[in-house]
From TrEMBL:
Residues covered by region (Disordered): 265-313
Key word Nucleotide-binding present: yes
Keyword check for Nucleotide-binding: yes
PANTHER family: SLL1921 PROTEIN, TYPE II SECRETION SYSTEM PROTEIN GSPE-RELATED
Protein's name according to its UniProt entry: Helicase
Ranges where the Uncharacterised domain occurs: 16-220
Annotated Pfam families: TraI_2 (PF07514)
Keyword terms, alphabetized: ATP-binding, Helicase, Hydrolase, Nucleotide-binding
Length: 400
């Protein structure tokens, strides 16, 4: 496949016209205009210069510019997924206010920083009779092609995917990261962003940033698969790729952990939706867990309740407790996690591993639960714990 060099502004303008991704990224970043122009936009421009019009694969994002579209789509979905993650549990309110915007940038940065490794693992690029390598003194594709005294280049598909080590992926990421990008980030944010670059496979104990990046790559591919209707045209976008479908798919990521009975049902779903318990505000972030607790209380209430101490309202728990359970419900394997929990006479038996993916050590999470009277006991092996029945509405917010 033959290509000609194009300015990054032209490449991005075309993608914006076809997908609206740049507008959505700017909105999802929640960054002030000057911050976006100084930090976010240079990263986007650098990736566009680096990949030019290269496609990603023969069967996925295969149109000219497909790799850049994949990068921006993954970045957008990383921001959507990041809104459901709990990054700063060990900090106070003021520190969290400062760090949350940095973590939001970190998930976007790490997603785009992995694109050079992804590109070299799938493509071979040639120009002027020479082959491009990521270790060239002019690493960006646009600069390297010009160094060959030409404006045209060709690509070939690798017969087998090239395995890229984490160290090489990080080294190549430096080619799209502007000098000084790290200096204003907190040390913990910079370390986690660095570690999340080009993480494709799930690993035990991975950080929330890594989880966001990995899920973003997978989500972009999932969207592309659903969008490919009819015969796939390699020179154009699939019929299902439109600004509206991209945004709709992203909104589903944000709404995923929310109980369907709480959300305002669409007309097609209204007939099958169970009656919802009224709530004070439709945007209350704990509305889903409040309904779960209320429904559980109604189901288990005896005909003539004894004058016992009233059950504590879900909304009365500290924000850190609500955030812990929100992070659990947002995990990609949440439905599998629910099946690993078992309700007994003593309470709800859960594997301790469910607390391992949202920024706090499991021991710290268990201590927080104990302090808030949500923990009955921990097994001798520390592989499982029993939560009080009051935790049911928090752990299973969508279950009546």
């Amino acid at each position: 496949m033959d290509f000609s060099l194009r300015p990054s502004s032209d490449l991005l303008r075309r993608i914006e016209a076809e997908t609206g991704l740049l507008t959505r990224i700017r909105s999802s970043s929640e960054a002030k205009p000057e911050v976006f122009e100084n930090y976010w936009q240079p990263l986007i421009d650098a990736v566009a210069d680096y990949v030019q019009e290269c496609p990603l694969e023969q069967i996925c994002f295969s149109e000219p510019g497909g790799l850049l579209r994949y990068a921006l789509m993954s970045g957008y979905y990383a921001l959507q997924i990041g809104n459901q993650q709990f990054f700063t549990g060990k900090h106070g309110a003021e520190q969290r206010r400062l760090l949350v915007p940095q973590y939001r940038f970190a998930v976007f940065y790490s997603t785009l920083a992995g694109i050079p490794a992804l590109m070299h693992s799938r493509l071979i690029v040639r120009a002027g009779g020479k082959t491009w390598t990521p270790f060239h003194s002019q690493p960006a594709l646009c600069n390297w092609v010009r160094a060959q005294q030409t404006s045209k280049f060709t690509i070939e598909w690798r017969l087998e995917e090239l395995k890229v080590s984490p160290s090489n992926a990080v080294a190549w990421a430096a080619d799209v990261v502007g000098i000084g990008t790290w200096q204003n980030l907190a040390e913990e944010v910079a370390l986690l962003a660095h570690d999340a670059i080009h993480r494709i496979e799930s690993t035990t104990g991975e950080s929330p940033v890594t989880t966001c990046v990995r899920q973003a790559y997978r989500t972009a591919r999932e969207f592309e698969t659903r969008a490919m209707t009819g015969r796939y045209q390699k020179t154009t976008l699939p019929d299902g790729v439109t600004p509206a479908t991209i945004q709709s798919f992203g909104e589903q990521l944000v709404a995923k952990p929310t109980a369907p009975s709480i959300a305002v049902p669409k007309p097609a779903d209204a007939a099958n939706a169970p009656p919802a318990t009224p709530v004070d505000s439709p945007v209350n972030p704990t509305a889903n867990v409040e309904q779960g607790a209320s429904a559980a209380a109604i189901e288990k209430a005896p005909p003539e309740p004894l004058p016992t101490k009233p059950a504590e309202s879900v909304s009365s728990y500290p924000p850190i407790v609500l955030d812990i359970f929100k992070a659990i419900c947002a995990q990609e394997d949440y439905e599998h996690l629910k099946k690993s929990c078992n309700e007994t006479e003593s309470g709800i038996v859960v594997p301790v591993t469910i607390f391992a993916k949202h920024g706090l050590p499991s021991s710290k999470v268990l201590q927080i639960l104990a302090d808030n009277k949500l923990l009955v006991q921990i097994s001798d092996s520390r592989r499982s714990a029993i939560l009080t029945k009051a935790a049911r509405g928090l752990l299973f917010p969508s279950t009546p």
